[in-house]
Specification:
With 398 residues, the chain is an alpha/beta fold. The protein folds into 2 domains: 7-125, Rossmann fold (3-Layer(aba) Sandwich); 132-396, Rossmann fold, CATH 3.40.50.300. 33% of the residues lie in helices and 15% in strands. It is built from 15 helices and 14 strands. A 6-stranded parallel β-sheet has the order 11-10-12-13-9-14, with helices on both faces. Strands 3-2-1-4-5 form a 5-stranded parallel β-sheet. A 3-stranded antiparallel β-sheet has the order 6-7-8, with no helix packed on it. Strand 12, helix 13 and strand 13 form a beta-alpha-beta unit. The chain is globular, with a radius of gyration of 24 Å.
């Protein structure tokens, strides 16, 4: 029979994502919490990391403030080279603690496999049960008949989409055309409705690749900045697993280091520039490979945003599923007056090692902001095509 009190051992990735996991798992005085010594050492090493430093500092501050709520395990032996790996040392320390029925809490799949092979129980961590569901996919931006009205959502009436605004409900009968780009289907048209609305400051878009999230967002940004002049500048933020020290060793300026990772963004902007000139975005629009004028458009790594205050801008956040909840909070808390944010991604295509389909910035943002007056979310659907070869591959399930 499973003991009522559980003995939880918390991995580094959990504390980086949510330091309060100690209190959540402890559940008052019901369970016991243990921190392996190697986890503390990993947090200490991460303090100087350009991407994880802020999260590590927050985790260490929480541990210091709540040091009576957990037990720190003794440091395990160095052993041979293999056991010196941090993951293996954490597992060794748990085994040496001789605690009854230990449960390792980690979102690292490799660690869970290793724990299983050692006969140790392990669990992923989500702050609350609803996050086992993917909120950014479950809530599509539409509400069904009989459901409570959600601010800035859509519903179907007589086969037509109706926008449920804060103060009015209106049927969407018009077709947008933005920066000479016409939406391909009703969902893209509704996305434009949200992206261009002066009453909505933050829009999240969810879909698989190929539905036009980034292209529509860039077209809307060009329209808002260059045509309507509602904002002065465009920022493009794209989180990368590679950002950090490895990127720091690359030669050149930030823009040169970023170039391989934002090729798709540059290509889409140049495509829009070919459709309709966006000369003010470039230092010399006639150059063979025009460089962006950072006074009007800047592409930055997520780590560079910390400490900035962004105002009078349109901010496009691509691949938000590769950001953590804390990174989303750090980014969005930098937004000041007259700023509009487009955050997009596909929560089923997660590359960040400690994120999952459920535990990522896109899912957390939808879950926490759904129903707020100046926020809207939409899942893009409908037929899409990147080209005949891509269509054949998808059709054949290659």
């Amino acid at each position: 029979m499973e003991p009522r009190q559980k003995n939880y051992f918390i991995d580094t990735n959990i504390l980086l994502d949510d330091p309060e996991s100690i209190a959540v798992l402890r559940n008052g005085m019901e369970n016991s919490i243990f921190i392996p010594h190697t986890v503390l050492e990993e947090l200490d090493r991460h303090k100087t990391d350009s991407r994880l430093g802020h999260q590590a500092q927050q985790a260490l501050s929480y541990l210091l403030e709540h040091k009576e709520e957990f037990d720190l395990l003794e440091r395990g032996p160095e052993g041979n080279t293999a056991s010196c790996l941090a993951d293996n040392r954490i597992l060794d320390e748990i085994l040496l603690a001789s605690v009854e029925a230990p449960i390792l809490v980690t979102n690292d799949k490799t660690m869970r496999i290793k724990a299983h092979k050692l006969g140790m129980q392990s669990e992923p961590y989500f702050r609350a049960n609803p996050f086992y569901r993917n909120e950014s996919q479950r809530y599509t931006g539409f509400i069904a008949e009989g459901e409570d009205i959600v601010a800035n959502s859509f519903s179907w009436e007589n086969g037509k989409p109706v926008f449920n605004g804060r103060e009015e409900r209106r049927t969407i009968t018009h077709q947008h055309k933005v920066w000479s780009v016409a939406p391909r289907n009703v969902y893209q048209n509704l996305a434009m409705e949200l992206l261009l609305s002066p009453d909505i400051d933050l829009v999240t878009l969810e879909s698989e690749a190929g539905f036009g999230k980034t292209f529509l967002s860039l077209a809307a940004a060009l329209h808002l900045v260059l045509s309507e002049k509602r904002h002065h500048k465009i920022y493009v933020i794209k989180p990368y697993v590679e950002i950090g020290r490895s990127m720091g060793y690359l030669p050149g300026a930030v823009s040169e280091k970023m170039a391989p990772y934002v090729r798709n963004i540059r290509d889409l902007i140049l495509k829009l520039h070919a459709i309709r000139p966006a000369n003010k975005l470039f230092i010399d629009p006639e150059a063979p490979i025009p460089e962006f004028d950072i006074k009007r458009l800047e592409i930055l790594p997520l780590a560079f945003i910390r400490g900035m205050n962004i105002e009078d801008a349109v901010v496009i956040v691509d691949e938000a599923q590769n950001m953590s909840r804390m990174e989303a909070r750090a980014l969005l808390s930098r937004m000041c007056t007259n700023t509009k944010v487009f955050m997009m991604g596909d929560s089923r295509q997660v590359d960040a090692p400690y994120n999952s389909e459920f535990n990522n910035a896109l899912n957390w943002t939808v879950r926490k902001l759904k129903g707020m007056d100046r926020y809207a979310h939409l899942v893009l659907k409908g037929a899409h095509s990147r080209g005949p070869i891509a269509d054949m591959v998808l059709a054949s399930s290659l």
